[in-house]
Inverse folding.
């Protein structure tokens, strides 16, 4: 079955960096775009980044652009999120999610299915 | 950025009743709208995409409708496991994608 397992969360001071990982299994990882979505404690969902199946395209919302970098290693079936210059408002559970589309389908669609269980990032001094 | 507004914020119903959740977009998103369910302590789950297509494994009691700016998620007969928070999401002219603020469906 499709499985996504995030890791790398923790407590970090403002201004510092952190790298999250998402290990994928149970599907052809190299055929799907992948996303990061976050959820601040008690709040709603915010899309953070997307990377195309082959890494050729990457997009971010303005809230993290220039600070966060999404990447992937298709040989290791792993997705990454490098987070720099962290701020208190980056505190959230970070989920990785597979894009519903795929190379064999209609490309990267912008729907999230399925999601990992999430990893908590707390930015605090 | 397209803003999605969900209503009501909280919906109180009993098992067996019909639930109707609304999502309104600040501008047309065509049919590029999805619905997700999130239970406490769990990740969201995709229910509906492209406004009316059920995702794999989603029961038939969940249905989506609408286009343009007004969308509805209907649960025809509530089961105990359906009480959760529901989010809508749009991907028109993405990126970015945006989410609504959520509707909490609680047991009456």
């Amino acid at each position: 079955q499709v499985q996504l397992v995030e890791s790398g969360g923790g407590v970090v001071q403002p201004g510092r960096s952190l790298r999250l990982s998402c290990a994928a299994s149970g599907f052809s990882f190299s055929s799907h775009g992948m996303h990061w979505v976050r959820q601040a404690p008690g709040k709603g969902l915010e899309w953070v980044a997307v990377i195309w199946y082959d890494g050729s395209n990457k997009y971010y919302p303005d809230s993290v652009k220039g600070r966060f970098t999404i990447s992937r290693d298709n040989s290791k079936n792993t997705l990454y999120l490098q987070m720099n210059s962290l701020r208190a408002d980056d505190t959230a559970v970070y989920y990785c999610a597979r894009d519903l589309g795929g190379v064999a389908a209609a490309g990267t669609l912008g729907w999230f299915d399925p999601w990992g269980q999430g990893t908590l990032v707390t930015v605090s001094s | 950025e397209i803003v999605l507004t969900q209503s009501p914020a909280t919906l109180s119903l009993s098992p067996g009743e019909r639930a109707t959740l609304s999502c309104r977009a600040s501008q047309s998103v065509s049919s590029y709208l999805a619905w997700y369910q999130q239970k406490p302590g769990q990740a969201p789950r995709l229910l509906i995409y492209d406004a009316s297509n059920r995702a794999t494994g989603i029961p038939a009691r969940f249905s989506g409708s609408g286009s343009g700016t007004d969308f509805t998620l209907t649960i025809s007969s509530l089961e105990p496991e359906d009480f959760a928070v529901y989010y809508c999401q749009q991907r028109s002219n993405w990126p970015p994608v945006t989410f609504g603020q959520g509707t909490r469906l609680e047991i009456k």
Observations:
- The mean pLDDT of chain A is 96.
- The first strand of chain A starts at residue 3 and ends at 7.
- Chain A touches chain B at residues 44-47, 50, 59-61, 95, 100, 109-118 (CB under 8 Å).
- Residues 13 and 71 of chain A are 23 Å apart (CA to CA).
